[in-house]
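Quick note —
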Amino acid sequence: MLNLYADEQFPLPVVQLLRAFGHNVLTVQEAGKAGLGIPDPEVLAFAISKERAVLTLQSV
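Predicted structure written out below.
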């Protein structure tokens, strides 16, 4: 099982699918950090502090 941290733009259906496969996914919204415009280094630092890998998408 993976411990993951889904950034704001990461799709909720994918989060739900990962959870269905048994992974532990914490979303930015669940962590109370949505809409705050937190810089990427701080997102990464939070994930590391919770021993989670970050899930994110980059818009093109």
